Amino acid sequence: MTETKNRKEDHIEICIDKNIQAKYKSTGFEDVYLIHRALPEISLNEVNTSTKIFDHKLKAPIVIEAMTGGTRRALLINAALAEAAETLGLAMGVGSQRVALENPQLEGSFKVVRKKAPHAFLIGNLGASQILKKDSFVEIQKAIEMIDADAFAIHLNPLQEAIQPEGSASFSGVLDKIREIAAKLSVPLLIKETGAGIAFEEAVLLEEAGIRGIDVSGAGGTSWAAVESFRAKRTSDELHERLGKVFWDWGIPTALSVIEVRHATELTLIASGGIRTGIEATKALALGANAVGIASPLLKSALEGTVESVLKTLIEEIKMTMFLVGANTIEKLNEIPLVIMNKVAEWLRLRGFKPEKYARRSVMD
Fold this sequence. Notes:
By secondary structure, the chain is α/β, with parallel strands linked by helices. Helices cover 46% and strands 13% of the residues. It has 17 helices and 12 strands. It is globular, with a radius of gyration of 20 Å. The termini are far apart. The relative contact order is 0.17.
């Protein structure tokens, strides 16, 4: 087993067996209030949940987030997720393909995704530390070809790399490398965080670098600091175990990251990080996201054979919420009024944004 493959096994096991969700930090969606319409003036069966990301139509605004690859259990998980994506008309990302680039014998755990989802919108994936290598563009091309990807994601994980005992916490030059890759890549380039969110300032820089989309992956859901803390505990690495605990809740809450990024850019925006219900998903869409990303709730269900059922339920919850706010399309969610209060509103005011403007917009205008 390679070091990377061992790490992948650890990640899957910990994410399934341990509580690695945020402890004291929420996503912020509890401070965002959708306004009930007693006269929605639409029928539930008229609600259309379809949307587009990168000119590709999805039947529902859901991206099955990048999770894993490179192990036997990862193959089973990816196969189940891909089947659901194909059946339900959703998008799907794969976990970091580094492990398969290091060992081509492990490509099958990634290739299975295109085999099971021949028509789905698939997103390849490598980490920021990998793109700094001299031959990184060649590796990205191989990763795209591996799954016949429709888009490619570079994930930013400075927190995880800093806490991970074998991590590479060197991010000097990443933005220039992103700019170089964006200029040459034949598919849309997406930048995604890994549980700590993206702020207005980074969104501006990333758009200027030529990327096509941002997946915020905000704080409030799975904590990769927590995952690495559990890994460090297994090897009695007290320093990194403590670092993981101290930074367990680090990051920008998902709702705030969505708002910040949407204020900064009109790029394709995916809201992910702790979204667990259709109401939360609809709030993210109403705040300006084009789609929502789901990861943790699908991991166990992929192994249990219930992933399609979980996603169908989520889609029905989104549809119901849209009906109750009087929006029969995803586009109309950008027009409905919603009230932002408490900590989220205070953050926005201090950052120079105006939460009041959301409360005054209306589909009746």
